[in-house]
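Hi all, posting the design record for the shared folder.

TITLE: backbone redesign
STEP: 1 of 1
STRUCTURE INPUT:
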């Protein structure tokens, strides 16, 4: 969920050019519905020939799916940069990072998580599902449970549910104005701490012990 949104009108290396085109696409798809953005628009915004859009991304839809992926996926560097410290420090930093990103890329992020006028598109749904799993992995690393094996399926389910809460709560702030940033931060921090410190241990404690056969 990190992209440089400033186009560069100069000769660039392939990776940099691809990133520049993607940044322009992020901005345009955030400002308009999917149907109102063409690859010609993106090329004009990026200052490149339209053929380069096809070269780097293929079709308009493939470009859009990459925009959704970038906006919805937590990059590994975000977890790597979390501060050392206790659980509360890392949870607070994780929530702060999330709120910083979604507010900085407000329109593009909202368009991505609401499918930007694409409706119930199967490809968009697949990309968002993949992003949910990446986000769950990142949260588990952040809270020190990446290697937890007890009730693993239940734990991932709770973390995915938390991800859904994070998305919905951010929309209440950015889209509906029902909550302010401090309230969202408090809700998301308290909820994640409760899952890790109370709910998950309680569920794990209720799992019956595995009976091992007696030695022969």
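Okay, here is what came back for every position:
SEQUENCE:
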């Amino acid at each position: 969920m990190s992209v440089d949104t400033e186009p560069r009108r100069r000769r660039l290396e392939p990776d940099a050019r691809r990133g520049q085109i993607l940044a322009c696409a992020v901005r345009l798809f955030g400002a308009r519905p999917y149907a109102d953005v063409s690859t010609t628009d993106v090329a004009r915004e990026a200052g490149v020939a339209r053929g380069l859009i096809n070269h780097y991304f293929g079709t308009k839809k493939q470009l859009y799916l990459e925009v959704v992926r970038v906006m919805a996926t937590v990059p590994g560097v975000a977890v790597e940069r979390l501060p050392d410290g206790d659980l509360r420090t890392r949870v607070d930093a994780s929530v702060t990072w999330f709120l910083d990103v979604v507010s900085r890329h407000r329109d593009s992020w909202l368009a991505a998580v609401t499918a930007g006028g694409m409706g119930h598109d199967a490809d968009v749904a697949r990309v968002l599902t993949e992003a949910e799993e990446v986000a769950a992995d990142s949260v588990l690393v952040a809270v020190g449970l990446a290697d937890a094996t007890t009730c693993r399926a239940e734990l991932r389910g709770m973390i995915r549910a938390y991800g859904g809460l994070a998305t919905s709560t951010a929309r209440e702030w950015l889209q509906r104005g029902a909550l302010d940033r401090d309230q969202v931060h408090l809700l998301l921090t308290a909820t994640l701490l409760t899952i890790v410190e109370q709910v998950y241990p309680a569920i794990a404690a209720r799992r019956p012990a595995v009976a091992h056969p007696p030695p022969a």
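COMMENT: Residues 4-9 have pLDDT under 50 and may be disordered.
Let me know if anyone wants the other runs.
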